[in-house]
Amino acid sequence: LDAKLRVQLREQLKELQHEVGVTTVYVTHDQEEALTLSDRIAVLDAGTLQQVGTPEEIYDRSATPFVCRFIGENNRLTPAQLIAIGAGLDATAESYVRPEKLHLASPSEATAGGTASLDGTVAERTYHGSHSVYTVSAADATLRVSVPAAASAHRWDVGDAVRIDVDPRWILQYPAA
């Protein structure tokens, strides 16, 4: 099905589920479909149950590194980035943050309370209509930052110095194996 028809069908399936009040088991590899249609999601890896929870729990508080990497976009943070961010984070832990949980700012802007920061340089920008994705070189690696079109009147260009702000509670950490 084309993209618009898939979205329409998804909405109709959700309506039908609620109208009929029936429990439905829906198997899909389409993550957006799983997140939008489900009240609860079970994530399996090679036949092993990794996590069961609401879409929000699965996405925002992934129980394992596999679930975090499997569902949605993410940035894997390096030890150097974790040290630069500070905020009591374990630099030895396997750590991830979602691109939309990061905030891009000019270095001169005031930092919001409760956030930690990382300085960087814009390496690339891709425009997606409703948002732009910036690839930012920070510490020893790059991070992808998703910026909603309506959230920022500022547009950064390749080479611009920026600051990435992040609330440490959005950083998912898993003990080193």
What topology emerges from the helices and strands here?
Layout: H1 3-20, H2 31-37, E1 41-45, E2 48-53, H3 55-60, H4 65-70, E3 75-77, H5 79-85, E4 94-97, E5 102-105, E6 116-127, E7 131-138, E8 141-148, E9 161-166, E10 172-174
Antiparallel strand pairs: 1-2, 3-4, 4-10, 5-9, 6-7, 6-9, 7-8
Verbal overview:
Strand 7 (131-138) and strand 8 (141-148) form a beta hairpin. The chain folds into 2 domains: 3-70, 3-Layer(aba) Sandwich (Rossmann fold), CATH 3.40.50; 75-174, Nucleic acid-binding proteins (OB fold (Dihydrolipoamide Acetyltransferase, E2P)), CATH 2.40.50.140. It is globular. The chain is built from 5 helices and 10 strands, in the order H-H-E-E-H-H-E-H-E-E-E-E-E-E-E. The strands form 3 sheets. Strands 5-9-6-7-8 form a 5-stranded antiparallel sheet. By secondary structure, it is α+β, with helices and mostly antiparallel strands. The chain has helices spanning 3-20, 31-37, 55-60, 65-70, 79-85, and strands at residues 41-45, 48-53, 75-77, 94-97, 102-105, 116-127, 131-138, 141-148, 161-166, 172-174. 25% of the residues lie in helices and 33% in strands.
Provide a count of the helices: 5
Largest sheet strand order: 5-9-6-7-8
What is the level-2 CATH architecture name of the largest domain? Answer: Beta Barrel
Rounded average pLDDT: 91
Question: How many strands appear in the DSSP assignment?
Answer: 10
Helix content: 10-25%
Order of helices and strands: HHEEHHEHEEEEEEE
Please identify the structural class as seen in this structure: alpha+beta
CATH topology heading of the largest domain: OB fold (Dihydrolipoamide Acetyltransferase, E2P)
> CATH homologous superfamily of the largest domain - what is it?
Nucleic acid-binding proteins
**Rg:** 18 Å
Low-confidence segments, ≥5 residues, pLDDT <50? none
- What's the CATH class label of the largest domain? Mainly Beta
- Shape from CA axes? globular
Query: How many separate domains make up the residues?
Result: 2
Let me know the largest β-sheet: 5 strands, antiparallel
Distance from N terminus to C terminus (CA atoms, Å) equals 41 Å
State which percent range the strand residues make up.
25-35%
